[in-house]
Amino acid sequence: AAKDLDSLQISGTPVTGIAMVADRIAEGRAAPMRSPAVNTGYGKEWIRGLAAPKLWQLSDVAMAAAIERRDGPAFVRALEWHLAAQRIYASMPPFMVGSEHAAATVRVTAEALRADGGGELALALEAAIRRQSVRPSMEAMKAEIVEWEVDGLAAWFTNPRGVVWPPWSDPPMKWQAESSGIHWVGLYWPQRQAIRAHAGALFEELMADPSDRNQQKASAAVFAIADAGPMAGARFSGVNGYASTSLDLRGALLERALATVVAIERFRRSAGRLPNSLDELRPRFVDAVPKDPWRKGPFVYRVLPADPATAWHPGYTLWSVGANGSDDDGNPVTDVVLVPAPPWPEPSAEPSTDSPAAADATRGN
Predict the structure, then answer these.
(1) CA distance 195 to 179
(2) How far is it, in rounded angstroms, from Cα 115 to Cα 312?
């Protein structure tokens, strides 16, 4: 990582210029990044979709530079840029909120907190997380619907025939419509309103139980009601919430995991030890233990045996049960491992009770 942000560029743009904009966004003073639609010839794309990833790139570069310099305030500033981009970009691209990226961000934060001792850095991070908090909700879904409706209304003035009878409804394009999941063509507003009312109830149910099984159930139900009437399924899927819900949940996972590791370090600094379970964080360090978005309980937490050779490590593991809603003992394939165990020598025999891989009584779930 470079030692000075002044010497860095992202896609040819000096980092310092992007950083000024990022600070304004984090402070809530910038205008929304959703700009008027741009006709690219292949459909309408939002400028926001191009700008937000640059904020994440900036955050990654700046966090690496801050860690190299052991600069706590710079690390907080960089992480807040990441959270601010997440806040203003409601449906985040998978490559920015995928399990690997979220886990890496949480792991680096946990290690930075450990190196700092959970003092001023923990308090600053706690404030940043609170300022940029993201809560997937029905209100966010309704706002998304309004924006889509305004865009649809504007389309009437530019190409009314295309709105009612889109190009893919022509017989030669039928195969493309089917491959795109468009079950009915046309945009008939009364039917859309009825479908949306039903989809809203499904969305609320999904937010209450975001397990993979319930996601599949809600998705099937949405497509079933889309099939019941004239509806452009491809356009419908993006405005009712269910299609982007898994992305929203990943965003919530990152925020809640960061809040958890901050509270753990504050507890350690106060008590001189790690909490035996996440329940010990209440009520002094959190009002309520942050919940794993993929289930109704907290993240899975385990304290590791002390090892002088890994003093740099936070000393615990933390993971989410993932989309399947099942705790698979920290399996990196099915669970989202947020703070992994440090590398350990290959055991020459069966794992003992002292092994970090062995189950213990410190599980926080």
Answers:
(1) 22
(2) 7
Amino acid (1-letter code) at residue 348: S
pLDDT value of residue 257: 92
Domain boundaries, the chain: 5-135+248-339, 138-246
Give 280's contacts (C-beta < 8 A, 6+ positions apart).
267
Mean local confidence (pLDDT), 7-24: 63
Taking the model in full, what pTM does it have?
A: 0.62
Residue position matching structure tokens 């404030």: 127
State residue 203's pLDDT score.
Answer: 62
3-class secondary-structure state, position 328: coil
Per residue in 226-236, pLDDT (tens digit) is 555 444 433 44
| HSE-up of residue 122 (Cα within 13 Å, Cβ side) | 22
Cα radius of gyration (the chain): 23
Nearest 5°: the CA angle 309, 315, 316 is 140
- Tell me if 79 sits within 8 A of 55, measured CB to CB: no
pLDDT band for 339, please (50, 70, 90 cuts).
Answer: very high
In whole angstroms, give the CA distance from residue 292 to residue 99.
13
- Please give the helix or strand (H or E) that residue 320 lies within, else none: strand 316-320
- Determine how many CB atoms are found less than 10 A away from the CB of residue 119: 13
**What CA–CA distance (Å, rounded) separates 306 from 181?**
54
